[in-house]
Amino acid sequence: MEECAPGGCLMELCIQLSIIMLGKQLIQNNIFEIGVPKLKKLFRKLKDERPETKTNESDPSKPPQQWELDHALEPFTGLTPEYMEMIIQFGFVTLFVASFPLAPVFALLNNVIEVRLDAKKFVTELRRPDTVRAKDIGIWFNILSGIGKFSVIINAFVISVTSDFIPRLVYQYAYSHNGTMHGFINHTLSYFNVSDFKAGTQPEASSFEEDVSLCRFKDYREPPWSENQYEFSKQYWTVLSARLAFVIIFQNLVMFLSVLVDWMIPDIPKDISEQIKKEKSVLVDFFLKEEHEKLKLIENFITRDKQRSKNETRGRRLRAASFCQFNRSQRGSLTSFSSHHTDV
User: Given this model, what pLDDT does residue 337 score?
Assistant: First the structure.
């Protein structure tokens, strides 16, 4: 098993992350961001070049149309590579920020440059993408949220396992006689009897004297004169339990602070939410006004229909009355005529 350096494993992790953030994210990706589309455009231009046999053009000196220039650009393949690049950067920054605190600074610098390079790429190197209505960034938000929650556990283990932060606290508050770090190195070293080397495993060329009987190594083990020699000591289990307790406390504390910050800082600013409420109230008033006008119009139609039906009924009655009066007059005239005829 490969052991860490005397300064801990954080130094190696810090060097690797600095190479990734500075060399790959900041330099390599940004160079490929513009260089690859330009090379593809040049290759496609050389491939599509043909002898100029255009005889049907009425005006050869006419400049090409904008759609012809846009057709020569690189086709738009989607935002998946852009999102994936940001996801990888976010993972490096959040998962190992405890070992490389300058990672957010390099990420910010990279994003400032990335914004301008992406703007130039989308305007001058790629065809215009089709407009699609979207509510949010989709599944990428869930991925970022999951990485953010998972990074809390990773950083807790990085701090507690790969550094001497927890062993120093345990020694200072549990084993130190005066509450200082004096004697911490001696406390972390265990004893080993050189006579316990297996045959063929002892060092042959040693710069130390030949009468060395004990050597020290960094671990929490029982000494050779103990009943349970070279077994894990009580200090080992104390440090291990302190590390696990730190992971649990750190995780719950960060989760609580994240929920608290999420509750204190709303997703929508107050002025925008008030503006949205005003727009909703204006829309409601507009719809109410429209419905009120429709109701008035319907009431007017109903009133007109009732008035028309009343007028028609009154007209029928008048016609019926006039017809009855005409019949009566006709009957009267016939009666008088008949009586007059009888007299004659």
Answer: 43
The residues that bridge with 216 in the sheet, in sequence order, are 191
State the residue for tokens 């957010």: 104
Report DSSP letters for 53-75, one per residue: ---S-S-TTSPPPHHHHHHTSBP
Q: What angle do CA 333, 334, 340 make, to 5 degrees?
A: 90
Contact 239, 167 (CB under 8 A): yes
The predicted model scores a pTM of 0.62
Mean pLDDT by 10 residues, the chain (344 residues): 54 73 68 72 69 48 71 77 85 82 82 83 80 83 88 86 84 83 84 78 66 80 83 87 91 88 83 86 87 85 80 72 61 50 43
Structure tokens at 195: 């006579």
**Listed residue (247, 229, 251, 230) closest to 239, CA to CA:** 247
Q: What are 131's two structure tokens? A: 């407009």
Report the largest interatomic distance among the alpha carbons of the chain, rounded to a whole angstrom.
181
Per-position DSSP letters for 271-338, written without gaps between them: HHHHHHHHHHHHHHHHHHHHHHHHHHHHHHHHHHHHHHHHHHHHHHHHHHHHHHHHHHHHHHHHHHHH
CA distance 71 to 52: 19
Helix axes 80-95, 139-161, angle to 10 degrees: 20
Residue 222's contacts (CB-CB under 8 Å, 6 or more residues apart) are 190, 228, 229, 230, 231, 232, 233
DSSP 144-175: HHHHHHHHHHHHHHHHHHSSSHHHHHHIIIII
Using alpha carbons, select from 216, 218, 222, 220 the residue that is nearest to residue 242: 220
Q: Which of 160, 171, 24 is nearest to 98 (CA)?
A: 160
**For residue 155, how many other CB atoms are within 10 A of its CB?**
20
Q: How many residues does the chain have?
A: 344
Judge contact between 13 and 161, C-beta under 8 A. Answer: no
pLDDT reported for residue 208: 63
